[in-house]
Amino acid sequence: MTVPDKPTLDGLEDRWSTRWEADGTYRFDRTRPRSEVYSIDTPPPTVSGSLHIGHVFSYTHTDAVARFQRMRGKAVFYPMGWDDNGLPTERRVQNHFGVRCDPSLPYQPDLVLDPGAGGAAAGRGEELVSVSRRNFVELCERLTAEDEQVFELLWRTLGLSVDWSMSYATIDERSRRASQRAFLRNLERGEAYAADAPVLWDVDFQTAVAQAELEDREQPGAYHRIAFPRVGTDGDAVVIDTTRPELLAACVALVAHPDDERYQPLFGTEVTTPLFGVAVPVLAHRLADPEKGSGIAMICTFGDTTDVTWWRELDLPVRTIVGRDGRIESQPPIALAIPAAEEAWAQIAGRTVKQARRTIVELLAASGALLGEPRAITHPVKFFEKGDRPLEIVSSRQWYLRNGGRDAEVRAELVDRGRSLRWHPPYMQARFENWVEGLTGDWLISRQRFFGVPFPLWYRLRADGTTDLEAPIIPDEADLPVDPASEAPPGFTEDQRGRPGGFVGDPDVMDTWATSSLTPQIATGWEDDPDLFARTFPMDLRPQAHDIIRTWLFSTVVRSHLEHGQLPWTDAAISGWVLDPDRKKMSKSKGNVVVPLPLLAEHGADAVRYWAAGGRPGTDTATDLGQMKVGRRLAIKLLNASRFVLGLSPSDPGVGAITEPLDLDMLHRLADVVADATAAFEGYDYTRALERTEAHFWTFCDDYVELVKGRAYGSRGDGPAASAQAALRLSLSIQLRLFAPFLPFVTEEVWSWWQEGSIHQASWPDEAEIRGPLARGPAGVADVAAAVLGELRKAKTAAKRSLRTEVTRAVVVGDAETLERLRAVEADVRDAGRVEDLELVEGSDLSVTATLAPED
RNA sequence: GGGCGCUUAGCUCAGCUGGUGAGAGCACCUGCCUUACAAGCAGGGGGUCGGGGGUUCGAGUCCCUCAGCGCCCACCA
Questions:
Q1: What is the CA radius of gyration of chain A?
Q2: In the complex, which nucleotide's C1' lies nearest to the CA atom of residue A304?
Q3: Within chain A, how many helices (H) and strands (E) appear?
Q4: How far, in Å, are A333, A345, A446, A583, A710 from residue A277 at the CA level?
Q5: What is the spatial distance, in angstroms and rounded to an integer, between the CA atom of A166 and the C1' atom of B17?
Q6: Which end of chain A is more exposed for a tag (fewer CB within 10 A), N or C?
Q7: Which of A611, A542, A540 is nearest to A570 (CA)?
Q8: Is residue A116 very low, low, confident or very high in pLDDT (cuts 50, 70, 90)?
């Protein structure tokens, strides 16, 4: 046993993280059966995102739970995943290297690019170097590999007890195989299907996006009152209000509520569009709101999602004018008969939506069709959560997965799944249920992007060169993953690509959620490693933040429901967010993002973890340097208290030596703490486990240690000293283990002074360790001793005297029961209080009168 | 418009199924070099538990209602 003279926290992170890796301390024992395994569906962080303190926060919560379960004897399956798949990586690669993906270019095997190769203007979209899809993907892989190392360093410094041999990445071969396999099975069962339909479209990223990735943003806009002349009348007009006058040429009808008496006479008649002179019908539909605008609306293909509903339910034609790049098409959607219309079109063709709006408003004003001035408003507009411009709606062929959005029965099944999941905190289930019940359509999983898992499909080209989309060519599961863009389907050769009678590959990739919704399957080796899968799936815990319940959590439940007919895990622990010190949400644009590594360097990992562990499940928590300082003090206190305890005697007198009433009472109180902390942890309330442990520890240091210090040094002989020494050691052992999930470094350091092996493989304390061998003894004596000692201290402090001051005489008044307890620990109290003469007087409330020795 | 959460000392928060005179940490004030720890120790001041109403012998703790803050969702003409 070696107890350092001057224990320190410095360097513990390096020393122990290295040691743990070398010893395989956190290696998953895959010989254990499912019942002895605790498996965690770790959130794969987006590696191309920036590191921030929020990562440290939520991952610490999970790690504390993992360490608790490991100490309880479970084989903990705690892999790390990296989310490197998808748009964030593409965007980062584009900016980092100054490149753009052009799928039409050929692969350049020797392409060498340095960061910023595309020139200083990279990112402004002007001087980007175009590279082939394969080159682009290679750059993505190169950059994410670097990003992953940065994350791994952070996790190791933070002391996450992950098994690094089980890592995966959402773009790696396993993930692509699992993702494609799951999709093909969905396809076979009819759960996946392709459809040509209007979709929400980001004009910058040039891809479709899903409902779950939308967000509303308040945008300035304006109502424009526009008169539509009625066909067959002499100058009569219908006046509509619109915020999107530029879509006039895409108008296919006007619509009002069926009960709206103002417009009932018009139903079934026609009006013509101003400027373009196209005749459109006036129709009735219940979604038209008589209160909004003039109560009658222009239906365009497509201005918003209501337009899509009207278009579908009223069986209207498609007149698309906005292209996928967000610009007005070169040709009008229908023949324009009047010359003025051709002119109007010529002025907007090829322009952006914004430019076209300005032009159309000018033309309308000039023609007299615009009534009055536009009235400025702000209104919510749908954006892709990662996008910069409002979404447009375009018709295109996309892949969908049935998620209950169009099927009440499936929806009900998924709501039931959500109800059988154990949520921490429970109220988060409401978010899940709200979302499922508010779904408006199936899950759109295809993206017109490059860095993602490709759809494992090809299509035959007929003799006339047209594509047969109805019967895709499907690979064998054994051949997955496949890349249909570079591999030929079974029975074809590469030179038949794009030729009549040959084939083409499906050009799309899956959305990143379509892969990350399979993290339980990917991590546990679904189909690839049946033995591992059987031992780890379904998993125990999904830890994640509340903002992605509708995406990650829901989609994972959907995939598992469809594939396995069960939940992917039993418990979901939902963490809150980290707010900046002023309780504002952190965001890059506000510049208030707190980066974690400097904090870890300054305060130490245990201190930062201590702060993080104070955030209960579901609770948003402010970054608090003060709490980190408190955590650091706690860690230092553990070092010093341990040094004291272990320095008292070279060996442990053993539990049998514990006979003193004060020692027994203190230990049984600790047993209560053990029971409480254990129950709290079992309910995922790690914060309470820490609070209880910490509160006991300070009482232990301030009262118990002070009370027994003299006796432990031998003031009353060997027997009483041995009792104190053994009690201190047992108590220290248990308290270190209670702290180990939170403060892995300092507890391991202290453990190494006097114990074999890692504390993180030691057993979680059990109250039976105390209650088994040790009789209860007189209860409540520790409280009485501490109370009397407190009064003695108060007397000394009030007299502005040192705590070493001798008390020549102290009179304690108390009830019979209190005095009885005090007698049991009288010697310890006199020792700690330096009381020469202690008199006990029976009375009512406890009071202590102390006479201090005169000052020198 | 719908849903959820929060509102307890200057600050950050505990207060579990209602019951000994409302707590902790930080901050603040006053002291103490006490042989584990001065990056420490001891002591102290400070709250009509968001407002109102109700149930109860008794309510931060349950019910109703109002207000403020935050988050999620919503068909945005």
A1: 36
A2: B76
A3: 26, 30
A4: 13, 12, 38, 56, 102
A5: 43
A6: C
A7: A540
A8: low
pTM metric for this prediction: 0.93
Peptide bond into A245 cis (omega under 30): no
Distance CA A769, CA A655 (A): 10
> What's the order of all strands across the beta sheet hosting A503-505?
A467-473, A458-461, A503-505
| Measured distance CA(A396)–CA(A201) in Å, rounded | 10
Query: Distance (Å) from CA A795 to C1' B43?
Result: 9
The answer to whether the beta carbons of residues A9 and A604 sit under 8 Å apart is: yes
% of chain A with per-residue pLDDT over 70 = 98
ipTM here: 0.94
DSSP A388-410: SS--EEEEEEEEEE--STT-HHH
**Contacts of A632 by beta carbon, 8 Å cutoff, 6+ apart:** A9, A603, A604, A606, A607, A610
Pick from A511, A483, A479, A481: which is nearest to A497 by CA? A483
| Sign of the torsion formed by the C-alpha atoms of A403, A408, A411 and A413 | negative
Residue with CA nearest to B40's C1' atom: A637
Across chain A, which distance is largest between two alpha carbons, in Å? 118
User: Taking the mean position of all CA atoms in its chain, how far away is CA A514?
Assistant: 16
- The pairs formed by A524-527 with CB atoms below 8 angstroms and a separation of 24 or more are A524/A39, A524/A77, A525/A174, A526/A178, A527/A178, A527/A181, A527/A477
Contacts (Cβ under 8 Å, ≥6 apart) of A376? A220, A221, A222
Alpha helix (H) residue ranges in A591-660: 596-603, 605-613, 625-647
| DSSP 3-state of A544 | strand
> Which amino acid is it at A603?
H
Separation of alpha carbons A296 and A523, rounded Å: 54
Residue A172, C-beta contacts closer than 8 angstroms, at least 6 positions apart? none
pLDDT digits (tens, 9 = 90+) for A473-482: 999 999 999 9
- pLDDT tens digits along A15-39: 999 999 999 999 999 999 999 999 9
Residue written as token pair 């202590």 = A848
pLDDT on residue A118 = 56
For residue A709, the tally of other CB atoms under 10 A from its CB is 17
Quick one: tokens of A498? 């794009």
Given a cut of 50, whether residue A674 has pLDDT beyond it is yes
Query: How far is Cα A827 from Cα A833, in angstroms, rounded to an integer?
Result: 10
**CB A651: neighbour CB atoms within 10 A?**
9
The protein residue nearest B71 (Cα–C1') is A547
Closest-lying nucleotide for A549 based on CA to C1' = B72
Two structure tokens written together for A826: 């009288």
The full DSSP string for A704-773 is IIHHHHHHHHTTT-HHHHHHHHHHHHHHHHHHHHHHTTT-HHHHHHHHHHH-SS-GGGSPPP-THHHHTT
In angstroms, the first-to-last Cα distance of chain A is 42
Nucleotides of B under 7 A from a protein CB: 2-5, 12-15, 24-27, 30-34, 36-37, 39-44, 70-77
Question: Can you give the distance from the CA of residue A797 to the C1' of nucleotide B11 in angstroms?
Answer: 28
Q: A192 — phi, psi (to 5°)?
A: -110, 140
HSE-CB at A48 with a 13 A cutoff on CA atoms is 24
